[in-house]
Amino acid sequence: MEFLLRLLQCFLKLISIVIYPLLNLLLARKGPSTIPPIRNQLVTYPLVDVIKLMRQRKLKSVDLVKAYIERIKEVDPHINAVVQDRFEGALEDAKRADGLIAKATGEQLSALFRRYILLGIPFTVKESCGLKGMPIRVGSRQRAHLISAANGDVVNNVVAAGGIPLLVSITPEYCFSMETNPATQKRCLNPYDNKRTAGGSSGGEGALNGAGASLFGVASDIAGSIRFPSLFNGVFGHKPTGGITSIEGHFPDSKDKVCREYLQLGPITRFGRDLGLLTQIMAGKNAEKLDLLTPVETKDIKIFYALGFDGLNGVLHKSPETEMALSILTALKYLKSRGCEVERAPMTDFRNSLEISLGSLVLLEDFPYLINTANKKNLNEFLTEMGKAILGKSEYTRDALYFESIRRFNATMSTENILKYKAEAEELKTKFAKLLGNNGVFFFPTFPVPAIHHNSSILFLSNVDYCMIFNILGFPTTHIPMGHDDNGLPVGFQVVAAPYKDKLCFQIAGELEAAYGGWVIPTPHQLEPLK
Ligand SMILES: *[C@@H]1O[C@H](CO)[C@@H](O)[C@H](O)[C@H]1NC(C)=O
Ligand SMILES: *[C@@H]1O[C@H](CO)[C@@H](O)[C@H](O)[C@H]1NC(C)=O
């Protein structure tokens, strides 16, 4: 362990113990959600059902696209999740898809759907993932004029499968935060409680999906950016095995080869049963490596679990709230009844989880800096900007600067020590992959608390390794929603598997969704009969 780093962590923990309960009191308990109820049944169907209805010609792309456009228009004033839409273009795309489907006869129709699995199906895109012709400012004023010249690889895979992009959604500046409060537009709000953040950095996708305004989103995750928003907004999110999805076209990125392992694009969706198909499409050719077509039986899965870090590492982190831990125990009990073997995993090998996570981030070559990338060793300009930000006078956001300070100050570690932790990560990876084996998964908190208040992510920053350690190790992990706490906020946990065993995560997600209902809408539906 690193003394100075852990001292800072301890300091943050102590402040959060004092301040956070006060914030909770001051900001009053949650009122009713302001999100309008869902009326149109079409936006309640999972992707697998939508595909069937389209193939049977019982559903038109135009109707589905219109239903989602209406839902987005209705909820966005309550969540501020959209950077820019392309609704008109999407309706044109939908008409074209309907035309193709109408023209095709018997055999041709099957061939058409084999070629375009997502023909006519709308989806949303985290701005940083790159959608052709749309902004890619990623919350930064300096990037305000930038437009994507091409689709990012993963977005392109979805478009090539026939998917229709509706919009690009909001992120924090450079994706450098656990909450989505960019320099370029109003902060993103949580659909379950607008005093709280939708999380970050895929906050826009989290909020849209949580509000029932997207069938699925393309998102990205280098330190929990898919899983935090999935937890905070009560939806499923998958961070694939390192290197499975391409990061080409994403901002920020890095030419450093390991960045392709740490940073992964993946789906956010209300429907756990859709995760396998979505990951298959997003992964493109690499999907073969995941052997998704060979089925898994739930009873053959062995479950390891931990309710948090242990030993001194556990003490220094914020420990998970009761209802977060309960979500794991509830799932374990159910899966045991389904025939799964369950065993507590020792966490001693994770004792340097924070050092490993932050050290690996520091070592990333040419990952962009907010300020003065060319001369990153000169801290003057950075420190001046940081001072201005604290006084509210900077054109950069405070959160992004805090995050960047981790890299600027080498997370308080010497290069020699960082390299030592990196070697330790390699050992941990081998050992933990061996423990999980071909049929093992690991249940672990995604984060110690449900959706946090706006402006409070700094207090929780040193808990980023609950998620980030699995980016560094390259293990696939899925956040699974497991209902609400007493305040009506979504709770849940992450299920991790050994590299290339993503399908074990999907099997558990589907099983728990069937048993516990998965996503629960912020405001009850008021469905109108289908026309
Ligand atoms: C961080 O590490 C780099 C490379 O080892 C070194 O050049 C730089 O001076 C360090 N920065 C600080 C603030 O310690
Ligand atoms: C959070 O901080 C911003 C300034 O960055 C301020 O405008 C806003 O009022 C704060 N919100 C809360 C809920 O404290």
Automatic annotation (TrEMBL):
One of its GO terms (cellular component) is endomembrane system. The keyword Hydrolase applies. One of its GO terms (molecular function) is hydrolase activity. Pfam families: Amidase. Keywords: Hydrolase. Residues 63-505 form the Amidase domain. This is Fatty-acid amide hydrolase 2-B.
